Amino acid sequence: MTVVTSYTRRRAIGTFAALPFFACGAGRRRCAYCGMPLDSQSPWNAELVSADGRKVEFDSPRCALLAWRTGRIEAEDVLVQDYYDRMWRSGRDVLFVASSDVVGPMGADLVPIDRARSSQFAHEHSGTRPLSLSQITIELLRELR
Fold first, then answer.
1. pLDDT band for position 55 (50/70/90)?
2. How many CB atoms lie within 10 A of CB 98?
3. d(Cα 121, Cα 130) in Å, to the nearest integer?
4. Region at 127 (left for phi over 0; alpha for psi -120 to 50; beta for the rest)
5. What is the rounded average pLDDT for all residues in the chain?
6. What is the pLDDT of residues 92-106, one digit of tens each?
7. Taking a C-beta distance cutoff of 8 angstroms, is the pair 94, 114 a contact?
8. Chain Cα centroid distance, residue 22
9. What's the confidence (pLDDT) of residue 2?
C-alpha cells in the first residue's frame, strides 16, 4: 500500500502545473542584450553583423547599440528597419531619432529613419533629435531608459 502524503501530492501538482510555463519559452529567440522574446513581425528588431557575416538579433535598436557600444558584442555594422517602409538598412545609411513621441517595445528608443525622410518624421512627431550612427554614445543610450 502506497501512502501519498500531502507534500508528495503538492509536489506532483506543482511539477505538472509548471510544465506549460517551461514549454512556452522553449526554443524562442530572445534579444541578445535584454533577453526579451523576439517577435519576428516587430518593426523594431535590429541585428549586429560581425566581420564574418554572423548576425546577432535584438528586440530594438537601443539594445543592439548598447551591446555594440559597451563592447559586449563585436560587430562591423548594425542593421535596422526603417520606420516608414520597414526595409532593412545599415545603421550608417539612416538617421536615428532620439527623444521623439514614438516609443519602442521597451520604452524610449532610437527610431531609424531613412535620411531622405527625416524632415517628414520631424514634421509628424514632436521633440525629434536626428543623429548619425557615429553620434550615438553610451551616455545617450543610457539616457533613453
1. very high
2. 21
3. 10
4. left
5. 85
6. 999 999 888 999 988
7. yes
8. 22
9. 53
Whether the predicted model's global pTM rises above the 0.85 cut: no
Residues 9-47: tens digit of each pLDDT: 445 444 444 444 444 555 689 999 999 999 999 999 999
Phi and psi at 130, nearest 5°, equal -75, 135
Partners of residue 104 on adjacent β-strands: 107
Under 8 Å between Cβ of 49 and 78: yes
- The residues spanned by each domain of the chain are 46-143
Copy the grid coordinates of residue 10: 503538492
List the grid coordinates of 67: 551591446
C-alpha cell at 1: 500500500
3-state secondary structure string across the chain: CCCCCHHHHHHHHHHHHHHHHHHHHCCCCECCCCCCECCCCCCCCEEEECCCCCEEEECCHHHHHHHHHCCCCCCCEEEEECCCCCCEEEHHHEEEEECCCCEECCEECCEEEEHHHHHHHHHHCCCCEEECHHHCCHHHHHHCC
What Rg, from alpha-carbon coordinates, does the chain have?
21
